[in-house]
């Protein structure tokens, strides 16, 4: 009725409430009213609004309001509001804009940075991979009377580790302690993770000891990093042992810990042990997620234990776990690889009934399964089901279809699919290209296959030819008795950094035995191949060719033996071989 007049504090309460609720329309209305009534707006209130914009992922709004603060609301910005907006930009990964904002505000002398400003901009630079620029900014701190804190050092160490500059990051650990800044568990975890990613577990272990000496107790993150590092190096026994030590240290393993070990065991072909870890995990009250189950299904099927995989599936359902598209896809793919696409089709039908929509990878696995077992028509029906069920086929779907059609000699249909694929804007990968090249070669159109190879060479990395692509063309050229062209193509393949394999060797050996008169055993050819690879410093590939020579009961030339042995017996390689032998003996 006009008898009560709102004070400034009432408006402030309204702003805080609307900001907390994310009601920006009402918030703007209050700001407009305050502006009309010429109310005083403090910087503290603007910082509350900036935080709300950050929480709502609206960096543009925060930046716009910052620019309007003085002009419209007569509130002069300070480094506090500047840092608040800078933080919003960085949280939203607007790193380029954060750098520009920093440059306009700090480098032009409008604001004087504090340690928080430096921490934020160093973080942005490290996220952008501008580590050297971050180091320069870090060195500027002392000139601005800002002392780096543990966050500053940890952020810079993380940036260096991600660039593979581990030694520089570790030297910062010594520097920070000299400067009187003591590391916390986060600092050590950053360095331990960097060393584990590099595979340097010995130094990582020493850093853990150093951590204890500095009074920092390893936490769940530390153990997870170490376990992940051990799994990457294939040291699963030590990883499991560390898990037990983690439990005994009253440090509770989480889903990441168990998932890492289970995934590592599966990759080493020890899925039975991975299932035991699953039981151990459930006994301690941890519910496995979809990635754990999908890894286990993939591992059991890969090891040929179809019965074990289906038993695990039934147990999973009985425990009330509702499989999602990741788990269903793993089961469908496993059954198809085991030669049971009809069973996989039933699982896919159950999946749809349960309201879980199959994705392109699910359909691709089922198509591949039917093609593999010779059920050409069923595979085509699956392809027709993809779009009718509201799923858009991707590059993988097209590659599987192309491969299936070309394997069955359906080149005309394959070309129609190829045009359809390009018309949809799907970029062919190496599998799609190789499949169509195989179709051309099978139909005797090797020159069309070579034309497609030249097209591949102009594409990006995902579409570059691999040894399978070249082997298809070698086979096609040999059928046309175009041996010289096949050898030219082999040299081109070597020049492009693609190494031959056993199939490559067998194709050329067969040529020399069947197509040449008089017949040759291929010794000179294989010897020459070894020397070419050695000249290119591709010793592993050269060693493979020597193994092929020995398997074929062909005696290598003395010069070939000398060259390959010399390359293999370089000091570092010998030492690595000794370590491998030692570990095999004692394990």
Automatic annotation (TrEMBL):
GO terms for molecular function: mRNA binding. This is Pentacotripeptide-repeat region of PRORP domain-containing protein. PANTHER family: ATPASE EXPRESSION PROTEIN 3, OS10G0484300 PROTEIN. It comes from the Eukaryota. PPR repeats lie at residues 114-148, 149-183, 184-218, 219-253, 254-288, 289-323, 324-358, 359-393, 394-428, 429-463, 466-500. InterPro entries: PPR_rpt, TPR-like_helical_dom_sf. It holds the Pfam family PPR_1. It comes from Aquilegia coerulea (Rocky mountain columbine).
């Amino acid at each position: 009725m006009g008898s009560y007049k709102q004070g400034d504090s009432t408006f402030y309460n309204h702003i805080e409430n609307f900001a907390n609720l994310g009601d920006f329309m009402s918030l703007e209305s209050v700001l407009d009213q305050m502006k009309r009534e010429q109310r005083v707006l403090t910087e503290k209130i603007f910082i509350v609004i900036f935080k709300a914009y950050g929480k709502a992922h609206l960096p543009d709004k925060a930046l716009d309001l910052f620019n309007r603060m003085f002009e419209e609301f007569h509130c002069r910005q300070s480094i506090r509001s500047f840092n608040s907006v800078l933080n919003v930009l960085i949280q939203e990964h607007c790193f380029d804009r954060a750098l520009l904002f920093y440059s306009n505000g700090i480098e032009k002398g409008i604001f004087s940075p504090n340690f928080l400003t430096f921490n934020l901009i160093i973080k942005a630079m490290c996220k952008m991979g501008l580590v050297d620029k971050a180091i320069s900014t870090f060195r500027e701190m002392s000139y601005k009377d800002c002392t780096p804190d543990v966050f500053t050092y940890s952020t810079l160490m993380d940036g260096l580790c991600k660039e593979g500059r581990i030694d520089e990051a570790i030297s910062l650990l010594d520097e920070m302690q000299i400067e009187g800044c003591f590391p916390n568990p986060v600092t050590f975890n950053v360095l331990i993770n960097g060393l584990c990613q590099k595979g340097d577990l010995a130094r990582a272990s020493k850093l853990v000891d150093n951590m204890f000496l500095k009074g920092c107790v390893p936490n769940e993150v530390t153990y997870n990093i170490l376990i992940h590092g051990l799994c990457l190096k294939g040291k699963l026994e030590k990883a499991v042992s560390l898990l037990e030590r983690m439990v005994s240290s009253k440090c509770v393993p989480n889903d990441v810990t168990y998932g890492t070990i289970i995934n590592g065991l599966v990759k080493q072909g020890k899925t039975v042990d991975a299932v035991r870890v699953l039981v151990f995990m459930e006994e301690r009250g941890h519910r496995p997620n979809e990635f754990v189950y999908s890894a286990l299904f993939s591992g059991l099927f890969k090891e040929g234990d179809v019965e074990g995989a289906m038993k695990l599936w039934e147990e999973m359902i009985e425990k009330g776990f509702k499989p999602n598209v990741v788990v269903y896809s793993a089961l469908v793919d496993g059954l198809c690889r085991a030669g049971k696409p009809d069973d996989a089709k039933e699982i896919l039908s159950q999946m749809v009934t349960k309201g879980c929509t199959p994705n392109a990878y699910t359909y691709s696995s089922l198509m591949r399964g039917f093609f593999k077992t010779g059920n050409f028509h069923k595979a085509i029906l699956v392809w027709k089901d993809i779009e009718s069920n509201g799923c858009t086929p991707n590059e993988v779907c097209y590659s599987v279809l192309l491969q299936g059609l070309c394997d069955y000699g359906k080149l005309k249909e394959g070309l129609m699919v190829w045009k359809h694929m390009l018309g949809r804007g799907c970029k062919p990968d190496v599998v799609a290209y190789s499949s169509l090249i195989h179709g051309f070669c099978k139909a005797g159109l090797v020159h069309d296959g070579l034309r497609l190879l030249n097209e591949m060479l102009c594409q990006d990395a995902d579409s570059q030819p691999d040894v399978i692509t070249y082997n298809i063309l070698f086979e096609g050229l040999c059928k046309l008795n175009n041996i010289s062209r096949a050898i030219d193509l082999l040299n081109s393949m070597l020049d492009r950094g693609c190494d031959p394999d056993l199939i490559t060797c067998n194709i050329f050996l067969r040529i020399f035995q069947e197509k040449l008169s008089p017949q040759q055993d291929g010794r000179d050819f294989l010897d020459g191949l070894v020397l070419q690879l050695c000249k290119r410093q591709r010793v592993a590939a050269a060693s493979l060719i020597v193994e092929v020579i020995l398997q074929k009961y062909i005696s290598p030339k003395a010069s070939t033996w000398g060259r390959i042995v010399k390359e293999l017996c370089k000091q570092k390689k010998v030492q690595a071989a000794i370590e491998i032998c030692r570990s095999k003996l004692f394990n």
